[in-house]
Amino acid sequence: MPKRRRDGEVISTKETTRCLLHQQIASLPLSLEPGRPLIAVEKVSYVYPDGRRALEDIDLTVQEGDRIALVGQNGSGKTTLAKVLNGLYTPRRGRVCYAGGLLEGDHLLRARTEIGLFFQDPDDHLFCNTVYEDVAFGPLNQGWDPQEVDRRVREAVEHVGLEAFLYKPAHHLSYGQRKRAAFAAVLAMKPRVLILDEPTANLDPRQEAVFVELLKKFHGTLIVISHDLLFLYGLCSRAVVLEHGRIHHDYTLEALVAHPPSLREHGLDFSFRFSCCGIHEPGRIEPSADSGNAQESGSPEGRSSRGAEVSPLIQLKDFAYRYPDGTWGVRGIDLSVHAGEKLALVGENGAGKSTLAACLLGLRLGRGTYRFDGKPVDEKRRKRLWRHIGMVFQDSSDQLFCPSCREEVAFGPRQMGLAAAEVDRRTREALARVGLEGFEDRAPHRLSGGERKRLAIAAVLGMHPRVLILDEPTSGLDPRSEERLLEILRELRVTLVVISHDVHFLSLLCERTVVMHGGRIIRDGPMDAFLNDEHLDSLNGLAYTYKSECRRRILRLQESAFPAAG
Description:
The chain is of the alpha/beta class. The strands form 5 sheets. The protein has a 6-stranded mixed β-sheet with strand order 8-9-10-5-11-12, with helices on both faces. Strands 18-19-20-15-21-22 form a 6-stranded mixed β-sheet, sandwiched between helices. The protein has a 4-stranded antiparallel β-sheet with strand order 4-3-6-7, covered by helices on one side. The longest helix is centred in the first third of the chain and has 14 residues, at 13-26. It is globular and about 75 Å long.
């Protein structure tokens, strides 16, 4: 008798037979001869269609059960190598073997069922109507019957702690929740090898700790791409360092972190982050030089030292926004931002930071009072806010869509109706400001993560905004790129609103901190007061508690390797 799916659709006998056949094949892992590597990469090179060489003469072996940290600067070839290992990219030269067979033909199809690839952006995984359907997509395409699919979905969703969101649309979840939903979608396919690209990007430290525990429970082979060596130290035992598309080092992770000169050589020196990890030590983190301005004003509402008589550039009173499903994004918001301020907007994933930013930009129409430059923002003015307020999104690829960097930066000024000569002048000026001279004809999607971030900033700066909002600007950046970004932002003479979980970065840039929790502002004051508020730090998922022990162990390693001169 024909079976029925959960939605009532009849499953034919032929389809049932096909499902059973796929199950029998998929349930048997590809055999591996004793002593042979699970993955073997031999003399692999990869060149993108535009001629850019991404990988050159890569030799790499991965044994079953290895836990590898794949590290290197932005643009070193890490993500490209991950896609080669998964079979998404075919090498121009060399070969990749998995479980003793070349990644081609039927063997490639089988290998893809065993090699899970977790992208940096969770939305690359989430495209169905509900979380249930997103997680079920992989097992369904592996050929499992509906009962087994249902079992796998519920098991994976429970594993990541999202049972309450099973039938919600993924786009209604917070970023951290979407990240876990995407991870569940990969886990439901029962991968033998798990490759993760920046798994903790844009997550608050509490969510990072959740991911650490999830990955510790994974008993297969693990390859993790990340710039966060504190995160990797508690998870991986081996480090593969890429530089300009080549493997520069392949040794233990302990050997890498114990040698600061090597870290500096490869742009991976993270020692400047030690001051903001772990136990609160007042005075260890120095706020930016400008942070005294907010302190002198003594105003909880963040009036700048320019004087209380100056009207705020942005003013919200009893402001709220509610999503179509009835969920409150933000509510009861009272906020004033003065021209020239550098404001940090912090809070755990789902606190309402990105929603508030979208409202400030005019992308979402809320209720309550919103004034910009002293004038009420009605429906007509809301649609013109883009001329005055620019935003760089978490994923800079969301706002890069033109064929060249020149066209990308010129797009905004052209939409403003400026003359061709002025558009050209602004384009050249903006690219130079972010250090991308000579990139005019490069394709944006071929740039490294750090270069794309700078291009997105240039595209906004070309419109000469009065306010610049940045959502997780350091996400996915190597330490060297972070420092360059910090220099660029410090030099800008615009009002800055920076959303981030990167407390150290914020402390070097911003003078004032607005803390959000549950869609509300719960604190608004000077940066140095925030840095020394241990209770507030823990409440909002901004404490680096799980990294504290990693930090101590690394410092001990470095002290042993390079003892202080007696």
